[in-house]
Amino acid sequence: MSKPEDTRSMAGEISRQSSAAFQGPSIKAEPDDPGEGHAAITGRSHDHADFPYLRQAAEVESVEALDRFKAMGIDIVGQLVERLSRAEGSRDVNRHRKAIQNLKKLAKNPKPVLGIVGPTGHGKSSLINALLGETRLVPTNCVKACTAVVTEISWNNSNNPERCYRAEVEFISADEWLDELKNLLQDIKAASDEVAEDRIDEDPDVEVALAKVKAVYPNITKDKLVQADPETLLSDEAVREHLGDTWEVVGSKPTSFYRDVAKYISSLQKGVNLEKLEEGGNMNEEQHPMQLWPLVKVVRIYIKADVLSTGAVIVDLPGVEDSNAARAAIAAMYMEKCSAIWIVAGITRAIDNKAAQQLLSRSFKQQLNYDGNYSRVTFICSRTDEIDMGEAAEFLGLDQELGALRRKESALDDWEEENKERVENDQAREKSLESYIKELEQIEQQWSKLETRWRKGETVTTSLIPSKKRKATTSAFTASKRPKTSGLLVEGPNVEYASATDLWDCLKNDMPKFPEDIPLTEEQIRSVLDCLRRKRNTASDEKISLKEKTDAAIDAQDNLKWDIEDAHASLLSSCIRKRNEYAREAIRKDFTQGLRELDNENLQRGNPDPEEEPRDYSEIARSLPVFCVSSRAYQGLCKQLGRSERVPEGFDGIDDTQMPQLIAHAKDFAGAERLQGSKSFLNGLLQVLQSLYLWCDVRDNELAFSAEDRQHALESELESLETNLRGALDIFIQQFKDIMTDLFTALDASAAGAAPNSIEVAEGWARRRRGDGGLTCASYKATCRRYGKYTRRSSTLDFNEDLVRPIKQRLAQTWINAFQQKIPRALKEFRDVAGKHLKDFQDIVETRIQNSAQYNKHTIQSLLRTRIRTVRHIFDSFSEKIVATQRKAHRKMKPAIMVQMEGTYSACAKEIGKGCFIRMQECMTEELENNSASIFEAATDPVKKDLTNICEDLQTGIWAEFADMLEGMGRDYTNLVPTSRQTSTKSNQKVREELLELLHQVDERFQRTSEPNLESITDETESSQ
After folding, report:
1. Which of 409, 785, 758, 360 is nearest to 593 (CA)?
2. Do residues 909 and 785 lie in contact, with contact meaning Cβ atoms separated by under 8 Å?
C-alpha cells in the first residue's frame, strides 16, 4: 500500500488527469512515465483502448459541444446494442448488456424546473413572453378572483413547421370535478340560506364559486343553481368529454396558437353577475359559451425559444393558493421539484420597506429554508420602464441633473416667448412674398408678350393687358401703425411688416402709368418691364433673407429642443439605472434580513445545535441574483411589440433592459445541470467502451500479469479494495443514522412542544369581534368542508398549515443543519475516502505493471481514471436523492395532520342552525384538547418512515453501485490475461470482431467532431490551470 502522505486527493488526481487529457494530439509522454497517465495520440494500438478524444469530449465545458458529443455517443450505444444482441448469453455478455442498459438511463437530458412566482398584476406574464421572444404566448389569468392555471413551458423538439407551437391541455378527472362541484355548490347554498337569493353574488367568496360554476354551465338559471345536484351537473356530456383527458393544440403562428390555447384555459368574461341573466333565467348560449378554465389542471407548452435551449423548464406558478384543489396540488408538486425559484414583483415594490420579506409568505420562506432553495432564489424587479422621472431624480439624488434639465427647458420657454411671434411673422411674410413674386412673374410675362407683339410691328396698348382682380389675401400682419418705408424690408426687433395689400399698393404707385387707348412705345414697355424686374428682385432678396433668418431661428430652436431631449434621455436613463441599483441593494438587504429573522425565530423556538455553522449573511446578500428588467422595452427594441405600442424611453439598447442577462442566467442555470449530465454519460460510455475493448481484443502475445501476479496482485488487491470501500460505507451509514437519531429526537420534541399550543392556534381562527381578522361562520365552515384549506379571492385559509407551523419552527434549525451541513459533509468525506482507496489501488496496479507491455499499462491507467470519475457521479446522484427525499418528507406533516383531523372537520361542516358557529369552535377545541399529542405524533410518523427508508436505500444503493464497479474491474483485469478468458463460441467470436472493428472507429469519430474545437478546448484548460 502507498502511504497516505504520498497520495494525492481524488479531486487533485482528477484535475491532473483532466488537464493531461486536454493537451491534444501534440502532447507526448514517455512510455514509462507513470505521472502522465497516457501516451501520445500516435495511432498505436493501445490508443484505441484509451479513447483519448472521447476523454477530451467528456471534459469540455461547452453545453453545445457536449450535446454534439452526447448525440454521437447515443448513436454508438445503439450500434453496440445491435451487435451484442447477436451474441450468445454468457457472464461477460450479460455484464456488458447490463452496463449498456444502465448507460442508456444516463442519456436522458435533465430538465431542471425553474418556477416563476409573483403577485398578480406585476408583469409576470409579460416577463415570460419576453423570455420566450414572443409578443403574446403565455395565457392570461382567468376571471377575477381565480388564479391562472399552472403553465409549464419547455423546449419543442419537433422540426415540423406546422408544429412550431404545441401545447398539451390536461383536464382534471371526473372525481376531482365532482369534489369541486360539491364544495362550490355547498358554498352557494350556504350563502343563500343566510342572505336573499338576489344578493348571494355580492359575497366576494361566493362570487368565486359562482364564476366557476357559471363558466362551465352558462345556461343554468339562478333558481336551479342554488338547488343544483353535483351528480347531475357532472353527467353533462359537454363536460364529461373533457374530464380526465389531455388535448393537444398545435400551430405554426404564435397569434393563432395563442387564440386556440386561450379557448381552453382563459376566461372569455371578466366576471359573472346573476342579475344579467336574460328574462326567464336563460343566458344566450352564443353570447355565453361554455368556458373550460375551471376544468384545466395544467397546460404544457412546447416552443423553440433560446432561453429553453439548455433544457430549462419554465413553470408559471400561481402558487399553491388556488381554489381548485387539483391545480393547487399540481402547483405544490412543481414547487417541490423546482431547482430554482424566480420571484417577480414590480420595481416600485422594491423601493418599499422590507419588500423582499413582504413578497414571501412565512410558510413559503420556511419551505424554501427546509428545501435548501434559498441559494436558488432569484429576484426579478419588473416594469423598470414605469417611472416618474421627477420623483425618481429627487429620491435618488439626481437633483443637479434634474435642475440642469429644468434650466434647459426654461431657456427654451424664454427663447420661444421672445422669438416665437417674430419667427411666425417672418414665415407668414415669406409666404406672402412668395405669392407676390409669382404674380409679379405673371404680370412680367404678359408685358414681355406685349413687347414681342410690338417688335412684330403690331400696335399695342395697355388695354391688351388683361385686368385681374386680386383675391383678398389674409395676412398675419397688423396694418395699423405700420412704418412708412420706400423699400419692402424693415429692420427691427419687433418689426411689423407691410401687408400683402401694401405691397400691391406700393407696386401700383411705383409702376409707370399710360392711357389705355394710346399706343405704347418701346421705351414705355421697357420701363414697365424694368420696374417689374426691380420689384421682383427686391422681393426675392427679401424672401431669401427672411428664409435665412427663419432657418437660423428654427435651427436654434431645434438645437435647444435636441439638447433638452438628450438631457431628458440621459436623466431618464440615469434614473432607471440608479433606481435599479437601489432596488437591487434593497432586495438583497431585505432578503437577508428576512432570512436572519427566520433563523432567529427558529433558534428561539428550537434547540440550538452546537455543531451548526452560522450562515454568512453578507455572502448571501452578495450572491443573491437580482435583475431589474423591462419586458416592454426589450420587446420594443426587438420589434416584438404591436404597431400601436410605443417603445419605452430610457433604454439605449437591449442590454439596458437586462433581459439578455436574465436569459443568460436561465440558460446557465439549466446548462450547468445539463453539462454534468452529459459528462456523466460520456464518462459512462468511456467505461463501457474500455471494458468492451478488453473483452474483444484478444492478443495472447501480450500478457499483463504472470500467474503469481494474477493470483496475488489482482485478486488480493481487489478484495482489499472491496473491504476498504465497504468499511467506508459502513462509517458513512453510521454517521447518517446518528444524524437521523438526533433529528428524530428533535422531531419528537418539536411535536410534543407544539401540541399544547394547538388550542391557542385554533382559537385564533374564528372571529370574536368585528375587525379582529378572524373568520366568519361561512368561511369557517367552508374551510372545514375542504378539510382545513380554503382559498378565497383575497387570501388562503389553511388550518393544517397553522397547526404544523409550530412543529416546523421548532425543528427548522436541526433539520436544516442535518440536510444542508452534516449530511453533505459526511458524504463528501465518504467520497474522498472512496476516491483515495481507488487511487491507492491504482498506484499498486501501476507498480505491478511497470515492466509489462505498454498496451496494457495504458489501458489499466485509463480504466482506473474512468472508475474514479464514476465514483464522483455515484455520489452526485445519491446526493440528489437525499435532497429529493427530504423535500418530500417534511411536506408529509401537513397531509398527516389533515388525515387526523378529517373527522373533526366533517363534524364541524355538518353543523347547522342557530349557534352552529359556537358549536363548531367547541368541537375543534375539544378535539385538540383531548388528542393533540397523538395528532402531532402521527404527523411525524411518515417523516420518520421516509428518512429511515432513505438510510436503507443509501446503504443498499451505494453498495450495489460499488459492487457493480468492482465486478467490472475484476472482469476487465481478468480479460487482460488471455489464459483466464472464457472460450468464445464462433458466433461470439464474430460479435467480438465486429465490436472491435466498431471500437477502432469510435475515437476517430470523436476526433473528427472535436478537431475544430481542440484549440478552444485547450485554451479553456490552460486558462483554468
Report:
1. 360
2. yes
Give the 3-state secondary structure of 647-689.
CCCCCCCHHHHCHHHHHHHHHHHHHHHHHHHHHHHHHHHHHHH
Average pLDDT, stretch 976-989? 61
Distances in Å between the alpha carbon of 251 and those of 136, 178, 344, 938? 14, 33, 29, 51
Nearest to 296 by CA among 262, 264, 331, 335: 264
DSSP assignment, residue 766?
B
- Please name which of 666, 440, 649, 415 lies closest in space to residue 555, comparing C-alpha atoms: 415
Burial of 646 (0-12, 13-18, 19+ CB in 10 A): exposed
Residue 52 exposure: Cα atoms within 13 Å on the Cβ side: 25
Q: What is the pLDDT of residues 687-715, one digit of tens each?
A: 889 888 888 875 543 444 454 555 456 77
Cα distances from 560 to residues 139, 401, 936, in angstroms, run: 46, 16, 75
CA distance 915 to 911: 9
- Indicate the pLDDT class of residue 589, thresholds 50, 70 and 90: confident
DSSP three-state, residue 475: coil
**Cell matching residue 414:** 424664454
Torsion over CA: 817, 822, 824, 825 (sign)? positive
Q: Which has the closest alpha carbon to 152: 309, 372, 268, 303?
A: 303
pLDDT in tens, 392-447: 999 889 999 999 999 999 999 999 888 888 888 888 888 888 888 988 898 889 99
| Helix or strand holding residue 300 (H, E) | strand 296-303
For residue 532, count other CB atoms closer than 10 A to its CB. Answer: 21
Which H or E run contains 297? strand 296-303
Collapse the DSSP code of 368 into the 3-class scheme (helix H, G, I; strand E, B; otherwise coil) and give the result: helix
Dihedral sign computed on CA atoms, order 714, 719, 722, 727? negative
Q: Residues 264-273, buried b or exposed e (16+ Cβ, 10 A)?
A: bbbbbbeebe
User: Are the beta carbons of 920 and 904 closer than 8 angstroms?
Assistant: no
Asked whether the CA dihedral 975, 976, 978, 984 is positive or negative, the reply is positive
Contact 743, 820 (CB under 8 A): no
Q: Grid coordinates representing 492?
A: 427691427
Per-residue pLDDT, 354:
55
